[in-house]
Amino acid sequence: MIKTAIYPGTFDPVTHGHVDLIKRGTKIFDKLVVAVAHNPDKNPLFTVSERMDMLKAITKDMKNVEIDDFGGLLVDYVHIKRANVVLRGVRAFSDFEYEFQMALTNRKLAPKTETIFMMPNESFSYVSSKTIKQIAFMNGDISKFVPEVVQEYLKKKLNF
Question: Is the pTM of this model over 0.85?
Answer without folding.
Answer: yes
